[in-house]
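Service request form, structural biology core

Requester: graduate student, group of Dr. S.
Request type: structure prediction, single chain
Budget code: on file
Notes: please return the result as structure tokens.

Sequence provided:
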Amino acid sequence: MELSEVNVIKETSFPRGWQKAAAFIEEEGIFRTIGGPKEGFPEVIERKEIIDTCQMLIFTGEAITQIEKGVMHPLFPFRQKQLEAYCHQFTTKYVENWLQLPYNDPHKFKYLYLDRFLYPIDQLEAMRKNLAVLVKEQISSNRVQAITWQPAQDRYNDEPPCLQIIQVIYLGKDDNGQDKVDLRLYWRSRDINAVQANIICLNRAFQHFFLKPNHCQIERWLDYSSSLHCYQDRLQDLHKAAWYARNENQFFIDTPLCPYPYNFK
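Core staff response, request fulfilled:
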């Protein structure tokens, strides 16, 4: 029996932070077999081999700007077309079209994050309104959050949402009078090969739904993954990413790299 190793990464470089997380998986991760009964077929047990860790990524400074610009590590598996397609899933128009698809349509995923945030209750509207009160009154709160988990659907779901909670902590105004927030995310499960796209596209959605309407900027992005892992069949790609332009424990990532801007509409 082994316990997953725990790691905290503090970075002002978004691509370098991702590379450090990949390196930790390769060097300190433990092999686990995950899976469970397939929905509708309880006799079928799906098994997946992963190398697993528990990690917290903390981005500040230039890393926040890089997230906004879509700056990614050169060996991150998403390219511009894939990133734009993924970010499109975080638009209201995409969700509306997705909801119209029949249940058994091959293009209909088990969930969309934006669907979980908007239906059956518009949690993002509540976050926008609650944050507006905090800005107006110049106070803070730990109650401005949204969740994706829906017990009625997810208690036996073989594909429940990976992202569980988003929380916004209002920090007040900085020395220039700019309203700032601390953004915190909790993931029950996370593929290292999705991390940068996750963050970039979620940022687009957050900006649109509750940050820009309240004229708030992100001071820190705190991203906690209870299980940050790589599937066994992707270990060769993980190794390449972990050692890209690297000398022992020195990670040489210059910026800007691979900027893929996406306009939220």
